[in-house]
């Protein structure tokens, strides 16, 4: 099973896969089902979320066909629900199909493709398949940064995820600048007291501890704790 930090990261990505603008959507029933999936996922009811996501997928495929962004959104939600339960073999083909649909319907450089890449990379990372995850994160970061109107909160998330990938492999020199850049973006875009800022501070603090910079780590941890206390 994945840990709490991973679940929080998954929830953040799940919120991004809300379905891109497209000529014709899958309809109100589908939208209602997707919102129910999100609610169940946030509540930790992953098995039920998977059941509802499967229904949403069926509705989308019936309404808009097999190759539509709303189908990709349904697939991503279903895959996330499986991943949260440690069901990686079920999740992988769903993520891959979602990514393929997004690339074909929206183009290889669309921001939603970056989300699909990030999702698949996260799955590989959760399984310790770091070599497979790294190029996906890097491509996702490139797409997001080059977007006409970049969503900097997404840029920060991918930077943080790539930093974690290096961090857990002991590649601290590669991880630290990514963590610091992610933190700077989150402070600017979300404000200094946002929970995501606390997450970045904690990641950087752990890296500092691992590299024997205890005083710096303690300052970062103290600030993260204050942010969390203020957001209860």
Describe the structure.
It comes from Chloracidobacterium thermophilum (strain B). This is Tetratricopeptide repeat protein. GO terms for molecular function: kinesin binding. One of its GO terms (cellular component) is microtubule. Keywords: Coiled coil, Cytoplasm, Cytoskeleton, Microtubule, Motor protein, Repeat, Signal, TPR repeat. The protein is mainly α. It folds into 2 domains: 1-132, Serine Threonine Protein Phosphatase 5, Tetratricopeptide repeat; 151-232, Tetratricopeptide repeat domain (Serine Threonine Protein Phosphatase 5, Tetratricopeptide repeat, Alpha Horseshoe). It is 79% helix and 0% strand. The chain has 11 helices and no strands. The chain has helices at residues 4-16, 28-42, 46-64, 69-84, 88-106, 111-126, 130-146, 152-167, 172-190, 195-210, 214-230. α10 runs antiparallel to α11. It is globular, with a radius of gyration of 18 Å. The protein starts with a helix and ends with a helix.
Number of domains: 2
The rounded distance between the terminal residues' Cα atoms is 26 Å
The level-1 CATH class of the largest domain: Mainly Alpha
Q: What is the CATH homologous superfamily assignment of the largest domain?
A: Tetratricopeptide repeat domain
- What structural category do the secondary elements indicate? mainly alpha
- The appropriate CATH architecture of the largest domain is Alpha Horseshoe
> What share of residues is helical?
over 70%
CATH domain fold name of the largest domain? Serine Threonine Protein Phosphatase 5, Tetratricopeptide repeat
Arithmetic mean of pLDDT: 90
SSE succession: HHHHHHHHHHH
């Amino acid at each position: 099973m994945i840990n709490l930090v991973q679940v929080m990261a998954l929830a953040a990505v799940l919120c991004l896969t809300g379905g891109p603008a497209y000529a014709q959507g899958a309809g109100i029933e589908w939208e209602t089902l997707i919102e129910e999936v999100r609610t169940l996922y946030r509540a930790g009811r992953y098995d039920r979320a998977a059941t509802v996501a499967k229904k949403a997928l069926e509705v989308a495929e019936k309404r808009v066909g097999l190759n539509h962004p709303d189908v990709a959104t349904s697939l991503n939600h279903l895959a996330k629900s499986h991943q949260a339960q440690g069901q990686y073999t079920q999740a992988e083909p769903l993520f891959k199909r979602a990514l393929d649909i997004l690339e074909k319907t929206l183009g290889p450089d669309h921001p939603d493709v970056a989300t699909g890449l990030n999702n698949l990379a996260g799955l590989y990372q959760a399984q310790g398949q770091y070599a497979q995850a790294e190029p996906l994160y890097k491509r996702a970061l490139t797409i997001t940064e080059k977007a006409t109107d970049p969503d900097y909160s997404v840029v920060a998330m991918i930077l943080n995820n790539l930093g974690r990938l290096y961090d857990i492999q002991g590649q601290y020199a590669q991880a630290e600048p990514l963590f610091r850049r992610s933190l700077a973006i989150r402070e600017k875009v979300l404000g200094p007291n946002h929970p995501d800022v606390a997450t970045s501070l904690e990641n950087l603090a752990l890296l500092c501890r691992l590299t024997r910079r205890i005083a710096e780590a303690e300052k970062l941890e103290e600030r993260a704790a204050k942010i969390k206390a203020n957001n209860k």
